[in-house]
Design a protein that fits this description.
There is one protein chain. The chain has 405 residues and is α/β, with parallel strands linked by helices. The chain folds into two domains: 174 residues, Rossmann fold (3-Layer(aba) Sandwich), CATH 3.40.50.1950; 196 residues, Rossmann fold (3-Layer(aba) Sandwich). The protein is built from 13 helices and 21 strands. The chain has an eight-stranded mixed β-sheet with strand order 14-13-10-15-18-19-20-21, with helices on both faces. It has a five-stranded parallel β-sheet with strand order 2-1-5-6-7, sandwiched between helices. β18, α12 and β19 form a beta-alpha-beta unit. The chain starts with 10 loop residues before the first strand and ends with a helix. The relative contact order is 0.09. The mean pLDDT is 92. Bound molecules: cytidine-5'-triphosphate. Cytidine-5'-triphosphate binds next to α11 and β18.
């Protein structure tokens, strides 16, 4: 499975103030870089005593900024630009002095000035000796900063560099990293890592070696849903009938022709899946007996004897385990909502997506689509007409939020 870099495109300033815990910051930088973040290190002068700018510059792949001016070049490090550039600022370690200056708006170094200019969220990971941490002034300062929206990554208890034992150790780099993941990124998608069975396209029911009963389904919607699921990290098994679209990549393909074949293939896959999304347009009828030879035309009227195809969705959802989710796609031309709600109940579904054919600009074979969604717990929402790929993304994201509840 493709690994996603969770901090791709995220610009994170790591502000390092003076304190022995600064020696752990290279590890934090590595964690952030591994997830694709752009990391800009700002250091105070005293931080240089605990970790070298060279180490941090190599790991962050950017020059470390310490002063307003780069003396040799006469260049100015613009604190306003840096404050606006960042999506997040984490000050680690945040010493008592830096916390006190932040509280009072003192900006006598580049890091403090950037903090004052920033519009993004700011985290502080304090590190100091236990008595400094417990001191009323530090506690008041931290309280004031929190009231202003600065987020605290609590120091932990343990052995301190002074030889004393107590609270004041900077949170470990992993803990700081996890806090940023938790606070900065949207919650994990419900579908991530889940096995999902998606059906798409139309089935074809043979009449004779030449002719079939079929429908207009192009597979576009089912494929767009499969792609949206894959983008969320789902493992998709795609069972598809007749389609006129390019197959999605990064999923397992199961081509079928008839409803019977689709049923057999789905039966073999369903038990191992957490979610079924039955987007396929399954033919409702098949001929009683498929003619082995091409049926010749005659002058007489001609009738085909049709029998029902298996209702794949009902058969699968009728045997679903408690953890399995079944989602159907109803196609209606009249009494849309009532018919869709009846299918939700009769087919034992968790959710039904209603496709109406009443808007001529969307639907079968078109680029765009609109749907209404009804869930068994009474939740309902409408997704207005839009491109099928964005509609699929919206549908999957909304279902994810609903299912995570
Ligand atoms: N479905 C199925 N097997 C069938 C017919 C439909 O699995 N033989 C599934 C479709 O894939 C869809 C859902 O059932 O997810 C609703 O399909 P739809 O065509 O709207 O309804 P039908 O059950 O076929 O009923 P009707 O055609 O009478 O509206």
């Amino acid at each position: 499975m493709l690994r996603k870099n969770r901090f791709n495109n995220k610009k994170i300033i790591v502000g390092v103030s003076g304190g022995i815990a600064a020696y752990k910051i290279p590890h934090l930088v590595r964690l952030l870089k591994k997830e694709g973040a752009e990391v800009q290190i700002l250091m105070t002068e005293s931080a240089k005593n605990f970790v070298t700018p060279q180490t941090l510059s190599v790991l962050s792949e950017r020059p470390v900024l310490i002063n307003f001016f780069q003396n040799d070049l006469g260049e100015w490090n613009n604190h306003i630009d840096l404050g606006l550039w960042a999506d997040a600022i984490v000050i680690a370690p945040a010493g008592a002095n830096t916390l006190a200056k932040m509280t009072h708006g003192i900006c006598d170094n580049l890091l403090l000035s950037v903090i004052l200019s920033a519009r993004c969220p700011i985290w502080v990971a304090p590190a100091m000796d236990l008595d400094m941490w417990e001191h009323a002034s530090t506690q008041e300062n931290v309280g004031t900063l929190q009231k202003r929206g600065i987020r605290l990554i609590e120091p932990t208890e343990g052995f301190l560099a002074s030889g004393l034992e107590g609270k004041g150790r900077m949170a470990e780099p992993e803990a700081i990293f996890n806090t940023l993941v938790h606070d900065l990124l949207p919650p994990d998608n419900y579908f991530s890592g889940k096995k999902v069975l998606v059906t798409a396209g139309g089935t074809r029911e043979s009449i004779d070696p030449v002719r079939f009963i079929g429908n207009h389904s192009s597979g576009k919607m089912g494929f767009a849903i499969a792609e949206a699921l894959i983008a969320c990290g789902a493992e998709v098994s795609l069972v598809y009938g007749s389609v006129s679209e390019k197959l999605p990549k990064n999923c397992i393909h199961y081509p079928v022709v008839s409803a019977e074949e689709m049923l057999e293939t789905c039966k073999g896959l369903f038990a191992d899946c957490s979610i079924l999304m039955m987007v396929a347009a399954v033919a409702d009828y098949q001929v009683q007996t498929i003619s082995s030879q091409k049926i010749k035309k005659t002058d007489a009227a001609f009738a085909l004897e049709l029998v029902k195809t298996p209702d794949i969705l009902t058969l699968l959802s009728g045997n679903k385990a408690p953890h399995q989710i079944c989602i159907g796609f109803a196609l209606e031309t009249e009494n849309e909502q009532a018919n869709a709600l009846a299918k939700l109940k009769n087919k034992n579904l968790d959710c039904i997506v209603l496709n109406s054919l009443n808007n001529p600009n969307v639907g079968f074979g078109k680029e765009s689509h609109e749907v209404d969604v009804f869930c068994k717990n009474g939740n309902t929402w409408s997704i207005p007409a839009q491109h099928k790929s964005t509609l699929a993304e919206t549908l999957i994201n909304t279902l994810s939020v609903w299912l995570l509840k």
